[in-house]
Automatic annotation (TrEMBL):
UniProt keywords, alphabetically: NAD, Oxidoreductase
PANTHER family linked to this entry: ALDEHYDE DEHYDROGENASE, ALDEHYDE DEHYDROGENASE TYPE III, ISOFORM Q
CDD domains for this protein: ALDH_F3-13-14_CALDH-like
Organism of provenance: Aliiglaciecola lipolytica E3
Xref: InterPro entries: Ald_DH/histidinol_DH, Ald_DH_C, Ald_DH_CS_GLU, Ald_DH_N, Aldehyde_DH_dom, Aldehyde_DH_NAD(P)
Protein name: Aldehyde dehydrogenase
Record's GO cellular component terms: cytoplasm
Length: 464
């Protein structure tokens, strides 16, 4: 916590109430002020990129390029996109006015919600906290940020940097773990934006219900990856490996398991193995581009998934350094833990099917995933998957490339979450889209006023 002792609960209440007072004062609504704060955030990333990259490396072993693509560069482009479009997003959005309400005009006017609590997860500890902050600032809100305690170096760094670059009264960082988050959740917010696992998502939602606070839940789940026989296997393998082993598989939208027909599964497995070696070398342990597992608890969880499984590639581990080799498991039982829980690590199960027709029912037998990947050269199969499955986000013929498009809303559905953000969808999510209708004093037609008559009713039936 930047301005108070994290163990002192009344300090948390005071801090939140101070931020709420700032919002009530109204200055965070000003367009120029919002842009200034966004520019300050941009300056922070540019001036402190070495410190930020170093924290990402210490917490997760992220190499500079990967950290740039998925964290700093990602947020910078979100900021630029937001500054470029903010004026337009803030404008009243014209709607048509029905004849019965003429003369008049109708529009939707975005207004800030108030004070937003943003709770981040550890796997992309910068992006997952700061991208929602970009949306919160853009929408004119104040915010309290709670970084994940598991990525402790980034948490400490942000608690130092945010007060130096952003308005201290409007944006504060509260560091801490369950205790501090629990205390924060007791406070009144106008929106809670949570990224993390399903179990804590339920805790957040029930705490929010006490204040009737709306929530955005960015959760995870098992994201399937279907490889159809028509797919280009070499390109498919490269894209699967890129999206699975970035951040050592600790990505909410990483492919969790692959579904492929037996007729091409050997070819795919070999192609994936070759790409792993191309990307990370024969000894990924020595690759500077390969990340590490966040902590021992997660390491042991992943080790447990391999018990009694058919490991066909990888499997080497070093708990001291956090190294967990890219690992392929062939045909695990569907009721084994590895196929029941979100893997969230560098293990990829490959399920071989007699026919690709089995893939869609298998996907639909599970909770709705955050992402679904289908590799196919067949438009018919692509359409079949799109029409017959449900997922937060779909990418055809690639991994999480869809995340690079700020015009695409990102979010889950069902168990993978609720509400989306990035670009305008983030602005809209953290705004109230207020309905406004303005009537004229002219032509005050009395049809709608009592006393009613059959004649009035017959006219009303025609115009309404
Ligand atoms: P985590 O352990 O970092 O927890 C997330 C946040 O919840 C932290 O800030 C933590 O302090 C807080 N928290 C933990 N326990 C709590 C409790 N009992 N009460 C109140 N707050 C508590 O992250 P995690 O949960 O391990 O995250 C992994 C999950 O997040 C995976 O399921 C992953 O798919 C999902 N995820 C989703 C996205 C997305 O954008 N949809 C992104 C990243 C991760």
């Amino acid at each position: 916590m930047n301005a108070a002792d994290p163990t002192n609960h009344s300090e948390i209440a005071n801090l939140v109430s101070g931020v709420r007072d700032t919002f009530a004062s109204g200055y965070s609504k000003d367009y120029a002020w919002r842009v200034e704060q966004l520019k300050q955030l941009e300056l922070m990333i540019k001036e402190k990129q070495d410190d930020l990259l170093s924290a990402l490396h210490t917490d997760l072993g992220k190499c500079k390029t990967e950290a740039w693509i998925s964290e700093l560069g990602f947020v910078l482009s979100d900021i630029n996109h937001t500054i470029k479009h903010l004026k337009k997003w803030m404008k009243p959005r014209k709607k048509s006015t029905p004849i019965g309400a003429q003369p008049g005009k109708s529009y939707v006017l975005p207004e800030p919600l108030g004070t937003v609590l943003i709770i981040g997860a550890w796997n992309y500890p910068f992006q997952l906290l700061i991208a929602p902050l970009v949306a919160a600032i853009a929408a004119g809100n104040c915010a309290v940020l709670k970084p994940s305690e598991l990525s402790s170096h980034m948490s400490t760094l942000l608690a130092q940097l945010i007060p130096k670059y952003l308005d201290n009264n409007a944006y504060v960082v509260v560091e801490g773990a369950v205790d501090e988050t629990t205390e924060l959740l007791k406070q009144q917010f106008d929106h809670i934006f949570y990224t993390g696992g399903e179990a804590v998502g339920k805790i957040v939602m029930s705490a929010a219900a006490k204040h009737l606070t709306p929530v955005t839940l960015e959760l995870g789940g098992k994201s399937p990856c279907i490889v159809d026989n028509s797919a280009n296997i070499d390109v498919t393998a490269a894209r699967i490996v890129w999206s699975k082993w970035m951040n050592a598989g600790q990505t909410c939208v990483a492919p969790d398991y692959v579904l492929v027909e037996k007729s091409i599964s050997d070819q795919l497995v070999i192609a994936i193995q070759n790409k792993i070696s191309d990307f990370y070398g024969k000894k990924p342990e020595t690759s500077k581009d390969y990340g590490k597992i966040i902590n021992e608890r997660h390491f042991q969880r992943l080790t447990g998934y391999l018990e009694n499984q058919n490991v066909v590639f990888g499997g080497n581990q070093n708990i001291q350094t956090g190294f967990f080799e890219p690992t392929l498991v062939l045909d695990p039982a569907l009721d084994s833990t590895i196929m029941q829980e979100e893997i969230f690590g560098p293990i990829l199960p490959i399920i071989t099917l007699d026919s690709i027709d089995e893939a869609i029912p298998m996907v639909n037998a599970r909770a709705k995933p955050l992402a679904l990947y289908v590799y196919t050269d067949s438009n018919d199969y692509e359409q079949k998957v799109l029409q017959q499955t449900s997922a937060g986000n779909v990418c055809v013929n690639d991994g999480f490339m869809f995340m690079t498009n700020p015009d695409l809303p990102f979010g889950g559905v069902g168990n993978s979450g609720m509400g989306s953000y990035h670009g305008q969808s983030g602005f809209d999510r953290l705004s109230h889209l207020k309905t406004v209708m303005k009537r004229s004093f002219k032509f005050d037609v009395s049809l709608r006023y009592p006393p009613f008559s059959k004649f009035k009713l017959s006219i009303l039936k025609r115009v309404l």
